[in-house]
Amino acid sequence: MDKRIIQVADGFWNIRGSFKVGGLIDVGTHASLVRRENGKYVFLDSYTLGDAEKRHVDEITHGGRDVEAIINVHPFHTVHVKAMHAHYPHARLYGTSRHLSRFPDLPWETTLIEDPAAQEMFEGDLDFSVPRGVDLVSANENVHFSSVLVLHRASRTIHVDDTLMYIRLPSPMRLLGLHDMLRFSPMLAQALEKRPGATRDFRRWAEELALRAHDAENLCAAHTATLTARENGGAPIKERILKALEKADRTLKAHERKYG
């Protein structure tokens, strides 16, 4: 298996990719391949597969014939959309409103992935969660916070883009007993809707996410790292999400003072 493809659990593979800001700093990106109960596969997000990566994916998916859908869940992750469609042109193509407006020439499914009607197509395999109290598509194109989070029930794995960041600390810090952390993106302050009650809605959504993911064992984050059950020497993911919400309290309270 290509080292950039991590088998997170049975039926779930996370593809770690490269994305360089200004052509210099590699902040990374990712996509995931998920096996459904019907034996077919879906991609979560898009990535331009290299030759070795595509060979491995095609080995899993019977030459790509069993890839039935590509689900783009982050409005601002668009660089690899066309390439992924070119890899698997027969797969149904889902995206957010911004994907459809950016690439109107692609054969998108008309139902947006942020809408329950599209999510119901994958009911039983995937549990979708759209953050509340924040803009899904920010008017400021530099604010990348919200995305549609996806929980694959069978493998107990969460796929998330910018909303949550899993940070694996370097060796010197691990020697001090600081191993890793899960946090909401620092873009939260800019992503919160400028209205009263936005922070209340966000808190309730985050608490619901922790509840819905009470038995999650793995988490794949786009720009940071993948947390797997076999590597997790710390708290369960549910507790990590609640801790991340606690750490965001200062940001949320500052917003409340301004907007109510």
What's the gist of this structure?
With about 260 residues, the protein is of the alpha+beta class. The protein has helices spanning about 50-60, 80-85, 95-100, 115-120, 170-175, 190, 200-210, 235-245, 250-260, and strands at about 5-10, 10-15, 20, 25, 30-35, 40-45, 65-70, 90-95, 125-130, 150, 155-160, 165-170, 180-185, 220, 225.
Q: What's the tally of helices?
A: 9
Q: How much of the residues is beta strand, in percent?
A: 15-25%
The computed structural class is alpha+beta
Shape by Cα distribution:
globular
Order of H and E elements: EEEEEEHEHEHHEEEEHEHHEEHH
Structure description:
By secondary structure, the chain is α+β, with helices and mostly antiparallel strands. It is built from 9 helices and 15 strands. The chain has helices spanning 51-60, 81-87, 97-102, 116-119, 171-174, 188-191, 198-212, 237-247, 249-259, and strands spanning 5-9, 12-17, 20-21, 25-26, 29-35, 41-44, 67-71, 92-94, 126-129, 149-152, 157-160, 164-168, 180-184, 218-221, 226-227. Strands 1-2-5-6-7-8 form a 6-stranded mixed beta sheet, with no helix packed on it.
